Structures are given as C-alpha cells and as structure tokens.
Amino acid sequence: MAGFRTLDDADVAGKRVLVRVDLNVPAKDGEVTDATRIERVAPTIAELSDKGAKVILLAHFGRPKGEPNAEYSLAPIAKATSTVLGKPVAFAPDCIGDAAASAIAAMKDGDVLLLENTRFHKGEEKNDPDFVKALAANGDLYVNDAFSAAHRAHASTEGLARVLPAYAGRTMQAELEALEKGLGKPVKPVVAIVGGAKVSTKIDLLTNLVKKVDALVIGGGMANTFLAARGTDVGKSLCEHDLAPTAKQIMIEAASAGCAIVLPSDAVVAKEFKANAANEVVAVDAVPADGMILDVGPKTVETINHWIGRAATLVWNGPLGAFEIAPFDAATVAAAKFAAAQTKAGKLVSVAGGGDTVAALNHAGVADDFTYVSTAGGAFLEWMEGKELPGVVALSR
Ligand SMILES: Nc1ncnc2c1ncn2[C@@H]1O[C@H](COP(=O)(O)OP(=O)(O)OP(=O)(O)O)[C@@H](O)[C@H]1O
Ligand SMILES: O=C(O)[C@H](O)COP(=O)(O)O
C-alpha cells in the first residue's frame, strides 16, 4: 500500500517483532464466542513465524481503565489464538518488565508469545513516552495489524510506530484496501445503520456521518439515547441521558444536511437481560417504567428494510438489539438477511464492521454474503467520516 512499509519490506528472521493485534473478541465465561478477529490476524502471525521472527503479540481486551483486572486477562485468548493458528502461543502475565522480558528471552525463532493486556497500564491510553519505551525495549521491529484499534492514539497503536521501525501487517493492508474499494466513492443513496452499546464513544462520530450519508438508521442502545433526547421515556433501557444534548445536535445537523434520521417506532421490552426473558412488543412511547428495550420491534424492522431496499450502499456498525440472547436477536437477523439478499441480487454494496457486528452477521449466517465485513467498529466509522486514524498515520511517517 502506498506510503507504508509492509511485511514485504521487513527483514524479520531472528528478530523480536512486536505485533499489535486486536484480540478484543466477543467472549463469555472465558470462552471466545466469535473468533473472526483472531482469524483475520492469523496470516500476519503465521507469515512472521514462518520467516523465523520471534512473534510477540500486543493487544488490549475490554476497558480495564489502567488497572490489572482478572476479568480482562488475555490468558484465555492465548488459548483461542493457539487453536486458530494450530501452534502453541505462550503467554506472559505482563506486557512490560521482568515477566515480559523473561518470557521473550525463552523464545526461539518462529515462536509466538502473547503479552498480557496493554490496558492494565495507565500509560497505554495516555500514550505515555515512558510506557512506550518500556514496550519498545522488548522489540527490534513493530508491526501494526490492528486496523480496528487504529482510531486510538495509544502507546501500542501509535507510540511504538514512532520509536521502532514500523510496518503495516497484512490485515491492516487488506482492511484499508477493501474499505477504499467498497466505500472510497460510495454510490448513492448511502444508508448507515448504527446500533450497539458503545454510545459515548461513538455518538460524536455521528455528527460527521450525517453529512456523508442520505439516511442514518439508529438502533440498539444508541437509539435509546436519541429517543430519550426526543422526550421519550425509555424506562430502564441502556441509555446515556447526559448525551441527550449531543443527540439533539446530531438531529439538527442531519436535518440541515438533508440526512433522514430513522429511529425505532416499536421495541421489544423485557424486565431482565437474559435469554428468553418474558417480553412484549410495545410502541416506543409505551415502554414500562421497569422495562428495558432489548431489540427494535417488527414495525421498525419493516421500516429499516424499506431503507435498505432504497439504498445503493449500506454501511452498518452495531447490532439493532442484544443479539447474543434470544429472542432479542430477531431484528438484527432479519435486517442482516435482507441486506444479504439485496447484495446477492446485485442491488446493494453492503459493508459492515465491528467486533459484535461481525459476530451478529455470523449468527445470522450471512457474513459471507456481505460485500465486505471489516473487523473494525469505531475505527470503521471514523474512517467513513474521513478522519485520519492515528495508528494509520503513524505508519505512514
Ligand atoms: N438495546 C440494547 N440494550 C443493551 N445492549 C444492547 C442493545 N442493543 C445492542 N446491544 C449490545 O451492543 C453490543 C455491541 O455493541 P458495540 O457498540 O460494541 O458494537 P461492535 O460491533 O462490537 O463495535 P466495536 O467493534 O466498535 O466494539 C452487543 O453486546 C449487544 O448486546
Ligand atoms: O472493539 C473495538 O472497536 C476495538 O477493539 C477498540 O476498542 P475500544 O473501543 O475499547 O478502544
């Protein structure tokens, strides 16, 4: 790819190669429930290992806020990575210091080692130069293969590229090329669907997105914040009430940009967040005070499919409901199947992205029918906005 050094340019035999990967995979009770992100970085790891590098993987998992926390340990992910690669992946209980250094000293050429969650240190998210230095002490070269974390200017995604010879991994290359091909000059009308749960980290992105798309369909937890901003009582639903002013501003920006905002008209509500919890379909203005919206309702699905039917290009990040627990997967599955059918019929270019979004498309059995499925969620939306991603910019230096 233009402007980058890639693995074709790297002499890695016998070298300690620090490889930033995104192993922030959907998991439950220590088991990986969707291995797509691991499968996507496997070719880079395998290539480096085959070329005789000591492959040292750096990754984050969840948001442990700079403190060690067993819930966010990467130890179980080392096992899942080993299964995908079909070779052993050792694990070190810290990403810097003695624990990392001694595990690396024990490596032979071709070995693969995963270091513990970089976000167990405050210096990671602060991109603290001392923490960058401590990470860099373990490597001769740096490879960034985490496109889906490239919107973060963190020590392991950005800082390292400034202090070590830096290269783009195969997935980083492939993601950028595929997004440019699918969405570089999107055919109009462009419809975006944004759902999911990361409301505070994604809502700001919608301000620019409404200037780029013809319609923005909002579902999942994100929709609740918009409904609340409009004065709808969403009961106990996942909702970030303090972001209501941002949501209102986005609706104003959308109106002036000529972008239609499509919010749910009905919802599936339950009193508990668990599989097969007793539930009912209600209009969004009739959510019980003790109820939670866990999916958009069937009328909303019809509306969403109408918009997908009008689109020439679909951009999708974030499931429409809590798709991991039945029956709250219904809307996501129905819309995914319809988008896949439109794509197969040659009527739609469909590009979806996000860790859970990929899992949801796999759950619906249609991931292979989309035009392109990115591993990236937030990074994908920022790329769509036209923003420069710090992790990508650092590689281009
Ligand atoms: N109405 C809802 N209430 C609670 N959780 C919801 C609701 N709708 C969707 N979700 C949850 O949203 C989560 C996915 O959101 P998220 O924003 O992380 O998407 P993503 O595709 O993984 O993107 P990224 O890669 O940026 O994390 C799922 O775990 C799903 O259960
Ligand atoms: O899941 C993601 O989108 C990436 O792994 C980045 O995670 P973050 O939103 O916690 O930075």
Automatic annotation (TrEMBL):
Catalytic activity: (2R)-3-phosphoglycerate + ATP = (2R)-3-phospho-glyceroyl phosphate + ADP
Pathway annotation: Carbohydrate degradation; glycolysis; pyruvate from D-glyceraldehyde 3-phosphate: step 2/5
GO biological process, alphabetically ordered: gluconeogenesis; glycolytic process
One term under GO cellular component: cytosol
Source organism superkingdom: Bacteria
Keyword Nucleotide-binding: yes
PROSITE patterns xref list: PGLYCERATE_KINASE
E.C. number(s) listed in UniProt: 2.7.2.3
Annotated positions binding substrate: D22, L23, N24, R37, H60, F61, G62, R63, R119, R152
GO molecular function: ADP binding; ATP binding; phosphoglycerate kinase activity
Subunit structure: Monomer.
Family according to the record: Belongs to the phosphoglycerate kinase family.
Protein name: Phosphoglycerate kinase
The species this protein was found in: Neoaquamicrobium microcysteis
